[in-house]
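Quick one:
INPUT:
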């Protein structure tokens, strides 16, 4: 199986964390997201222990909430002792209301509004990751009004191409995010930040992309960033203490994707970073990382009920399900490839080539094309694997479809973390 939390039981049914997915579909209905809490916790621990081991106290993972945000995930992150990154007032409000220690929350985004900044300051957020001059000015102004000195990192673009999907490359020079070293705008914003009375510049941030399996893009970025830390020290006398390397370690979506060990990769990245710090004569900074996908993607799957199986002779076979692009827009947006399994026939050969289509009134509403599954029939349960990241968080109400629930499973319990929306929920703001 694709991941170690998945299995097949004596009834030939797919299991996650030991639970029969066909029984889960019966109990909670479809479509439903199912998340393996034990796997999320294990991933948090792998990152936390590896970062602490290689970089010492203070170094830690910050969960990138954009991958999957709800109250429960912040409670898990809190219990695991990691930090969080948020990118909007909504994520910030949720993490705050979940009782998360706000000093470990970092506020991202390339266009924080005045209201976002006010909310961050009122929630006593640990750090803003400042993207641009206007934002720097506004944070300083609002911090002054409140008579506080606000910790910040500056978002820097190191100009690394991580050889991944173009739509998720966010670290190159022409990016909408941050300030580039190459154009000297990075040094200009550092110097500006150091003049602000109500701002404490604590470090730098960079994010090079997503779904990266190699270590080199991270170590190349770290090399550039550490050289820049040295340049800052030389030009301003200020030694910045924190270097945040962003998110992006890859996840296995199909059998063609490699297995990587996050623990080993962090070890390899750490060795290089230590060399670079020595070579460039700066003290080893506190290293933060912001994993999103690699903490939650493989912990999730989505359960659907099959409706029609339409065979168009000489063309293709369509398997229609009771969800689609509103609960998983990633194929429609990025042609992201998934592995699907007929959950009640999990041991039967996957020899039926088909297109998995959603139920929206739109031809582009597809979950997979040319994929191989067991030939299903109406009312079979289809599981789409590795949907724990960027599915629920990117879901919509298109065609006025209610959002599916999130069911959490762990060795000793299963429970609803987010309940299924009703038609009345859809109408709650209609006046
Ligand atoms: N930190 C920053 C500043 C980011 O921009 C991102 C992702 C992350 C951390 C987390 O990256 P991860 O570890 O999850 O790769 N919607 C797209 C992914 C967009 C990622 C954007 N930034 C998708 O579904 O593939």
């Amino acid at each position: 199986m694709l991941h170690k939390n998945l299995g097949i039981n004596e009834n030939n049914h797919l299991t996650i964390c030991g639970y029969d997915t066909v029984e889960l579909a019966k109990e909670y209905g479809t479509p439903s997201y199912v998340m393996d809490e034990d796997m999320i916790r294990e991933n948090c621990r792998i990152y936390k222990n590896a970062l602490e081991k290689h970089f010492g106290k203070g170094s830690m993972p910050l969960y990138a909430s954009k991958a999957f945000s709800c109250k429960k995930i912040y409670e898990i992150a809190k219990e695991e002792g990691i930090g969080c990154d948020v990118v909007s007032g909504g994520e910030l409000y949720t993490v705050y209301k979940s009782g998360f220690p706000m000093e470990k929350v970092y506020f991202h985004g390339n266009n924080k509004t005045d209201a976002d900044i006010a909310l961050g300051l009122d929630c006593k957020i640990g750090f803003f990751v400042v993207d641009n001059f206007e934002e720097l000015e506004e944070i300083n102004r609002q911090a002054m009004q409140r008579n506080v000195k606000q910790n910040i990192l500056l978002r820097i673009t190191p100009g690394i191409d991580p050889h991944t999907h173009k739509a998720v490359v966010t670290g190159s020079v022409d990016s909408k995010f941050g300030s580039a070293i190459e154009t000297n705008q990075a040094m200009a914003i550092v110097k500006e930040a150091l003049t602000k009375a109500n701002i404490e510049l604590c470090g730098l941030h960079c994010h090079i992309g997503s779904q990266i399996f190699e270590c080199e893009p991270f170590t190349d970025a770290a090399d550039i960033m550490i050289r820049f830390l040295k340049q800052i020290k030389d030009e301003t006398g200020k030694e910045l203490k924190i270097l945040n390397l962003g998110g992006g370690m890859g996840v296995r979506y199909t059998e063609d994707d490699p297995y990587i060990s996050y623990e080993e990769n962090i070890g390899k990245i750490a060795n290089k970073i230590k060399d670079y710090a020595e070579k460039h004569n700066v003290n080893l900074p506190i290293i933060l990382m912001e994993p999103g996908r690699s903490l939650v993607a493989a912990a999730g799957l989505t359960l659907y009920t099959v409706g029609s199986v339409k065979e168009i002779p000489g063309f293709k076979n369509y398997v229609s399900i009771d969800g689609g692009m509103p609960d998983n827009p990633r194929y429609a947006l990025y042609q992201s490839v998934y592995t699907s399994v007929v959950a009640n026939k999990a041991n039967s050969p996957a020899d039926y080539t088909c297109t998995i289509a959603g139920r929206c009134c739109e031809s582009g509403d597809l979950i997979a094309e040319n994929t191989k599954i067991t030939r299903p029939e109406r009312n079979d349960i289809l599981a789409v694997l590795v949907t724990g990241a960027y599915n629920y968080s990117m879901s919509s109400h298109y065609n006025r479809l209610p959002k599916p629930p999130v069911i959490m499973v762990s060795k000793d319990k299963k429970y609803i973390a987010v309940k299924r929306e009703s038609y009345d929920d859809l109408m709650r703001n209609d006046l």
